[in-house]
């Protein structure tokens, strides 16, 4: 299926990931847009707030606040969604997800598609490099964030 | 598979649901236990905090804070988990979920079992009655909470 996305919002997800990295946190950022306009953005806050559910996508959805509907929205994320975030995308009825990269983490793309979500994978080199650097520098934190023992 | 659960923690999940109901919120409560001891508890805070990701289970996991591992934990919830909460249970590796009721909402039990989670459904009359009353009183809020339009 041919879809479209806004490269500027991929860049914004990267910038939020970089902000979190510079704060000592997990570098995953996310943006929620409707009709091209940002209605929420966020980044992983496991370290910053001691909050295990604050993955980038979740923090973004929290910051977007209560929505009557997620019709017409697109969720941008710097890294492929984990099962928590993928389940949330399905539950909320978010129709379109733009994944900046799934080289360092992935696997839930088919689950999302099986539930009717349109998934684009960009292959953004900035996000790949940042995430790779983080995993090399902080493997214990990364494993905690994805619940790998 | 024969499993076991603590009826006192089902009661605690109900009490947390009732607390949220009395605050004008969605009446869903949750408790996380390890080796029989509570390590986190919470309830839906969509109304109280304007937070769409704060389902009962999510608020409980947030309050439990960062965990190196969820091995040996059991998550009690007054209502069957939605896809967000079910995805989170799988992602976090929570091995056992005790669902007080799935009469008013359900459907993700098989997904959880397919990912190796042991699921008990209690059929707690207090939780069934409270949830039924809430849905009758506040259908718009309930539909927003489960993203039904």
Automatic annotation (TrEMBL), chains A, B:
Pathway(s) per entry: Pyrimidine metabolism
Cofactor(s) this protein cannot do without: Zn(2+)
Superkingdom as given in the UniProt entry: Bacteria
Keywords: Cytoplasm, Hydrolase, Metal-binding, Zinc
Protein's recorded name: CMP/dCMP-type deaminase domain-containing protein
Domain CMP/dCMP-type deaminase: from-to ranges: 4-119
Assembly: Homodimer.
Family annotation (Pfam families): dCMP_cyt_deam_1
GO BP field: nucleobase-containing small molecule metabolic process; pyrimidine-containing compound metabolic process
Single Gene Ontology MF annotation: diaminohydroxyphosphoribosylaminopyrimidine deaminase activity
Source organism: Sphingomonas sanxanigenens DSM 19645 = NX02
Keyword Metal-binding recorded: yes
GO cellular component: cytoplasm
Database matches in SUPFAM superfamilies: Cytidine deaminase-like
Locations listed in the record: Cytoplasm
PROSITE patterns reported for this sequence: CYT_DCMP_DEAMINASES_2
């Amino acid at each position: 299926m041919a879809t479209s996305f806004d490269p500027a919002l991929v860049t914004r997800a990267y910038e939020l990931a970089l902000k979190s990295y510079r704060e000592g946190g997990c570098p995953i950022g996310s943006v929620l847009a409707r009709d091209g306009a940002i209605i929420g953005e966020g980044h992983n806050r496991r370290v910053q707030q001691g909050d295990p559910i604050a993955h980038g996508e979740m923090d973004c959805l929290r910051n977007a606040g209560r929505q009557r509907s997620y019709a017409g929205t697109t969720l941008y994320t710097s890294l492929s969604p984990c099962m928590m975030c993928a389940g949330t995308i399905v539950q909320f009825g978010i129709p379109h997800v733009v994944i900046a990269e799934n080289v360092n983490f992935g696997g839930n793309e088919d689950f999302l598609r099986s539930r009717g979500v349109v998934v684009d994978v960009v292959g953004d080199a900035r996000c790949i490099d940042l995430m790779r650097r983080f995993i090399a520098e902080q493997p214990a934190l990364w494993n905690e964030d994805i619940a790998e023992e």
